[in-house]
Amino acid sequence: MKGSIFRSKFLSLQKPESVAGVYMIFGLVWITLSDRMVEWMFSEDIRQISRFQLFKGFFYVLLTSLLLYFLIRRLYDQISNRNQELELVFTNPDLGMLKLDSKGVMTELSANMETMTGYSKQELMGKTIFDLIHPLPGEDNLEVFRQIIQSGHKEGFQFQFCVRCKNGEEIIFNLFGMGILTKQRKVKSYIVAVENVTEQLRSHQNLEAKNKQIMELAFDQSHLVRAPLARIMAITYLLQEEGLLNENEKAEQIKKLKESSEELDFHVRTISQKMRV
């Protein structure tokens, strides 16, 4: 099991030592086997040995060139695929990248940060990230974030803040960051990924509002509508039965029937208006 794991890691060819190791092993095997073949085939003929050594050298250069081509091509394809993934990240209009120094000052930023906030690169560079973000209503995590940045925190972190754009619009950012360490394991700077989640949160809030409205409509239907409807059904039953009511009682019940019908109509129209909102 351990041997298979070692082979899979070694042959992954994603590190320089893997490429150099494959080339070294191939070269040693080639030299050893080819020299023994020369001794076996041309043990006494010096001219034949010299000619074969020349061809052997040409063949070795050809094989190693092909080997290096495939190794380099594989690494190039991996790098190209990774660059495409990074390009998707950096061209996403709702994603941005920041680099902060140990005090929270913005030293580098992606072009998407300019698009999302409306500020130019010159306006953002040199400012601290604390000048850009504000705590959300009901939250007090700005001081916690400030302490993380200024204390050399080594672990990853995640926060959500409000950002006031240049045009005055407020948008919501998710911040995902981690520290870049020096050889002495001290935080030198921070890389922060910024995601604009304003539309997602608004959609979520709209969905919650719709759910609340549906619950209110269900309550109105089960309570406000059912009460006058039950009275109408009861009065209708009394009026249909002969001999239960005299003329005065029938007139009184008809008056109540009209009132219950108007009440029912009022609640139905109210529910219809709520459904249009």
From TrEMBL:
Gene3D superfamilies: PAS domain (3.30.450.20)
Superkingdom: Bacteria
SMART domains to which the protein is assigned, alphabetical: PAS (SM00091)
Keywords: Membrane, Transmembrane, Transmembrane helix
PROSITE patterns referenced in this protein's UniProt entry, alphabetically: PAS
Stored InterPro entries: PAS, PAS-like_dom_sf
Protein's UniProt name: PAS domain S-box-containing protein
Organism encoding this protein: Algoriphagus aquaeductus
